[in-house]
Design a protein that fits this description.
heterodimer, A: mainly alpha, B: 310 residues, two-stranded antiparallel ribbon
Chain lengths: 419, 310
């Protein structure tokens, strides 16, 4: 058995050593106009050697390893009773209430950095939930989702710059604008099959970024837009001194000024937006349109036979998904106070997609969990910053191989026929 | 008879466009072949092109360090080694990111390929640094078209090399696909994968072969464009891949002549946009063209309309 594996083991080890050695072991070194080669440090050679050795042994003992893996007792399955109990609606409601309460209390227990991180997580949760409608529920692979995010952010920033629009009006306009873009783009491309759609949306995301970069007269190009107004609470500002004709929050409530108020306010605002998003999506899912999304994902031809108009249904998913990206973009712009096309690259789309996929396509709890993991892990592993994207790509591949259904796959209530 | 300046200007744009377009065509063939057989987009294909460029630079720099100054030898060595290495990369990508995922949901291999693309791009970034690496021009000079004095168009020797290499490659590929036994097996796989397997052809091998051929063609494009522009960085693969995919769709994905036609068309469109409007918007025009084509002729210029089966 081991002999049969010996050949592939040797081949894979040699291939890895050669491929990695050529690209990693030799560095191109530019001195003026002359190009020369320098060897990478011995640590790199050690790493390549280790990787080759690992692959060799992995392939050599692959049968034993998989037998071992199967032999592991695995996680103890939750007892049937517990599963039944956990599906009780009352308990689920209690669980959600608990989670929301924890999320509300979080900024008051944590420090400034923690709250800020929480806000970032919430932005990604919102984006993930929005993309989840398109990818997870309707089954349309959208690789240009960040385009709508950019439309929302720039929509608000430009409105604020040219027309002096406040945050709340801006939020609405940004959402509508992103929806309009989603509608206009979706109209031609949604007739396409899945993979075409993926590339066209990718191209669209790039077009938006290139336009933002080049339309210097409107968007200030790569320098970005700064001084975007912060959100207000019923007209109360979160600054030390309120601007003309406004009142600031700490004066109104009668407490001393602290810059943390604004951070906490932003966090709670993001939380509110996420809760609204969750609420809307969950309502939509129970409506005919939500059912149609999922039906379409499962079988388009059957849907057509049942009289569902696939284009209209897809378009609705696309537009609604884009709207949430617009909201998220507007909030992002208001929180940062500064935006530039840098923030809306393809990698951002890939991260949001990874959140949806990692969480389990269609599963909202999964998306939330994945957004937390994807945002907090890189923060914790700052020293591995250089390797972050490398590991990210690797993780996407491995995840697809080992657990394509995601961390918490969507489960829907269903009855099975007993035979 | 003196021809007007504007005509020479147009000819120059046409030459530039066809040069870039023929390399797009080379990359696009890789997409189209893989898509034709397993119906998946090899998203990491653009990164293969980038790796091909890097290997070519490494080979040329290595030869220069050993004191070999013969330009033809350098170019031939760059082609040969770069094609071999990228073939191995193409094969490995197929084994790691595609083979285990075949036959499931269509989105899953696409996502794993995106992951692969990010992985390769960052691997090169970490290994070789993210800044541009430039190479001195190896082949200079060219042939003037039009009057020597005043405005004229130039066909540089490098551009000629690009045309010739592309033509030879395409000719070879056409011969391989239409005449050889393996080429016939490839076509059979594209027609009906399951049936071909039943008839005793090693379809796994054929699929791997298409990845290898695609990677080798991408490497040729990488070597050519690397020498043409003289500058590479780890991020060139993304845009090139996207453009080549656009070219493949433009011509009708799954069709090799279509990929060539699409590549040339895209290259010329871009060059004319850059020449007459603004080079900043040439990418926008390329994607707008893609969207328009898909809108009016979703199967591409030479593609067969597809019938969806239950």
């Amino acid at each position: 058995m081991m002999r049969a594996n010996l050949k592939p083991a040797i081949i894979s080890a040699v291939v890895v050593a050669v491929l990695a050695g050529l690209l990693l072991g030799i560095r191109l070194d530019q001195q003026g106009t002359t190009l020369s080669l320098v060897g990478a440090g011995p640590d790199v050679y050690w790493k390549i050697g280790a990787a080759a050795a690992f692959l060799f042994f992995f392939n050599l003992f692959r049968d034993q390893l998989s037998a071992l893996w199967k032999g592991l007792p695995g996680l103890p399955k939750a007892p049937q009773k517990l599963v039944e109990v956990s599906h009780k609606p009352a308990l689920r409601r209690l669980f959600w209430c608990f989670m929301i309460a924890a999320a509300i209390i979080w900024p008051f227990l944590s420090n400034r950095g923690g709250t800020d991180l929480g806000t970032l997580v919430l932005i990604y949760v919102m984006l993930g939930l929005g993309l989840n409608i398109v990818v997870g529920l309707a089954g349309l692979l959208d690789l240009g989702y960040v385009g709508f995010y950019a439309v929302g952010a720039y929509g608000y920033a430009l409105m604020a710059m040219y027309f002096d629009v406040g945050f709340w009006t801006g939020l609405l306009i940004a959402g509508l604008l992103a929806a309009l873009f989603g509608f206009l783009l979706g109209f031609p491309v949604l007739r396409l099959r899945g993979d075409y759609l993926a590339i066209v949306t990718l191209g669209f995301g790039e077009i938006i970024r290139i336009l933002l970069n080049n339309m210097t007269w409107l968007t200030n190009g790569p320098n970005g837009i700064g001084g975007i107004p912060k959100p207000t609470l019923f007209g109360l500002e979160f600054s030390r001194r309120a601007s003309e004709g406004m009142q600031s929050f700490h004066e109104f409530v009668g407490i001393s000024y602290s810059s943390e108020h604004r951070i906490i306010f932003l966090y709670l605002l993001a939380l509110l937006l996420v809760l609204i998003t969750l609420f809307v999506i969950n309502r939509l899912l129970r409506m005919p349109i939500g059912r149609a999304w999922e039906a379409l994902r499962e079988d388009e031809i059957a849907c057509r036979a049942l009289g569902i108009n696939p284009t209209a249904v897809k378009l609705s998913a696309f537009t609604i998904g884009a709207t949430f990206a617009g909201f998220a973009g507007c909030f992002f712009a208001a929180r940062q106070g500064f935006i530039s096309p840098e923030s809306f690259t393809f990698i951002e789309s890939a991260i949001i997609l990874a959140i949806v996929v990692l969480g389990g396509m269609g599963s909202q709890v999964g998306v939330i969990l994945a957004a937390i993991i994807m945002t907090i892990l890189p923060e914790m592993a700052r020293e591995f910053d250089e390797y972050r994207m490398l590991l990210f790509g690797l993780m996407m591949v491995l995840m697809m191989i080992w657990r394509p259904q995601g961390l918490l796959p969507m489960s829907r209530p269903h009855l099975e026929l007993r035979t | 008879m003196a021809m007007p300046e504007s005509l020479y200007y147009f000819i120059q744009q046409l030459i530039n466009g066809l040069t870039v377009g023929s390399t797009y065509a080379l990359i696009a063939i890789g997409y189209t072949m893989v898509y034709g057989i397993i119906g998946m987009i090899n998203f990491a294909h653009g990164e293969i092109y980038m790796i091909g460029s890097y290997i070519a630079f490494i080979v040329i720099a290595a030869l220069a360090m050993f004191g070999i100054e013969s330009v033809p030898l350098m170019i031939v060595a760059a082609f040969a080694i770069s094609m071999m290495v990228t073939s191995a990369y193409g094969y490995s990508i197929e084994r790691v990111a595609y083979r285990p995922l075949r036959g499931g949901n269509r989105l899953i291999p696409l996502i794993s390929a995106i992951g692969m693309s990010i992985f390769l791009q960052n691997l090169v970034r970490i290994a070789q640094g993210s800044r541009d690496i430039a190479m001195p021009t190896m082949i200079s000079g060219g042939v003037d078209i039009g009057p020597h004095e005043g405005f004229h168009a130039t066909l540089s020797y490098m551009q000629m090399i690009i045309f010739v290499v592309t033509l030879i490659t395409m000719f070879g590929l056409t011969l391989f696909i239409s005449r050889s036994r393996m080429g016939r097996a490839c076509r059979a796989c594209a027609e009906d994968l399951k049936m071909t397997n039943l008839l005793g052809i090693n379809t796994n091998g054929i699929i791997a072969l298409t990845f290898v051929i695609g990677a080798a063609l991408a490497a040729i494009a990488g070597v050519l464009l690397g020498m043409y522009y003289g500058v590479i960085n780890p991020y060139i693969g993304f845009m090139a891949g996207l453009k080549a995919f656009t070219a493949a769709v433009l011509g009708g994905i799954g069709s090799i002549p279509g990929a060539v036609l699409g590549g040339l068309l895209l290259g010329v469109t871009e060059a004319i946009t850059a020449g007459y409007f603004s080079s900043e918007y040439k990418d926008v025009v390329a994607f707008a063209l893609l969207i328009l084509i898909l809108l009016f002729r979703p199967s591409g210029i030479l593609g067969r309309p597809e019938v969806e089966k239950v």
